[in-house]
Amino acid sequence: MGEIVIDGSHDGKTVKDYIRSCGISRAELIRLKKREDGILLNGERATVRAVLKTGDLLYLSRDDKSGDENPFVEPIDLGLVPVFENDGLLAFCKPAGMPTHPSHNHLRDTLANGAAYVFSQRGIPFVFRACNRLDRDTSGIVVIAKNKGTAKYMSELISSGGVEKTYVCIAEGVINEELTVNRNIKRREPSIIERCVCPDNEGQTALTRVFPVFSGAGMTLCRIKPETGRTHQIRVHLASVSHPVAGDTLYGNASPYIGRQALHCSEMKFPFGGEDVVIRAPLPGDMAELVKLMKGNQ
Questions:
Q1: Which of 168, 193, 199, 213 is the most buried (most CB within 10 A)?
Q2: Which residues are catalytic?
């Protein structure tokens, strides 16, 4: 079953309630409770009494099943084409507007559905193991592990900072020099979605490096290197220095030029199988058009 993003329909329920709703047998529940990594909530081992909140990440370490036996993700041909593949990994360029994980309102239009279809065409047993995740309206690279061993390796690699990610972003305003934003992030109460910067004795540490490329039309094209991977980190950090991501209606303002936050995961680098893997994904059309507009207004 892998990692699940908890939606509003399960907010306030216990992990046990959620597991029962998935039809998991009592015997398998006992196995999950005994395993060190059987039940993880936001990366930490949890009991079945833990209370879920919308946006939580719940991981259930279930035994692998073939695609036909896995009832949780329906394979749907969404036109996804891998941008990278080796023996252990598949990577896709997720379009903006596509959720990564299925939820109550998105059961057939997610990256997981499209990936399930690609796996089925290759005859690979499918359990959705996304090694990284992107917000629905952020485009770019999402890496998926083909098996449990690879998923564990990638999880440990990401946790130790062994995966280098580069984003391309169009930020509001003119940025003339490199920035390092080193401010903790926490959930903004009472919101279940929004995050904010906070004092060092609160929240989670977060560090983002911003490299401006050029400015035009009152915006700046930037390369972004997040040193940590907190929820909404780039969007929160840029907003905190008065340069919100263009089109980000949660932390900034709507844009007349683009209908979503102008943020794209363009490159990932990490060691795998004794080699250095580099995965790249070009800018999608909406951001490429905005770059052209900016160049024409320098």
A1: 168
A2: 135
Over the stretch 142-188, which tens digit does the pLDDT of each residue have?
A: 999 988 889 889 988 988 899 999 999 999 999 999 999 999 999 89
Three-state SS at 10: helix
Beta carbons within 8 Å of 289's beta carbon, 6+ residues apart: none
Token pair recorded at residue 51: 């209370």
**Listed residue (273, 67, 32) closest to 153, CA to CA:** 273
Give the residue carrying structure tokens 């909140």: 53
Residue intervals in the chain for CATH 3.30.2350.10? 77-160, 164-295
Q: Which amino acid makes up residue 273?
A: G
Secondary structure element (H or E) that encloses residue 269, with its range = strand 263-272
Q: Which long-range contacts (CB under 8 A, 24 or more apart) does 209-213 make?
A: 209/178, 209/179, 209/180, 209/181, 210/171, 210/175, 210/178, 210/179, 210/180, 210/181, 210/238, 211/178, 212/175, 212/176, 212/177, 212/178
Tens digit of each residue's pLDDT (9 = 90 or more) over 248-275: 999 999 999 999 999 999 999 999 988 9
Kindly state the tokens that stand for 203.
Answer: 């929240």
Quick one: which of 129, 111, 32, 24 has its CA closest to 74?
A: 111
Q: What is the CATH number of domain 164-295?
A: 3.30.2350.10
Please, are residues 87 and 78 in contact by the beta-carbon 8 Å criterion? Answer: no
- Is the bond preceding 75 in cis, omega lying within 30 degrees of 0? no
CATH number of 77-160: 3.40.50.720, 1.20.1250.20, 3.30.2350.10, 3.40.630.10?
Answer: 3.30.2350.10
pTM of the entire predicted model: 0.77
Amino acid identity of residue 240, one-letter, is S
Q: Which two tokens stand for residue 81?
A: 């084409």
Question: Which 8-state DSSP code applies to residue 227?
Answer: S
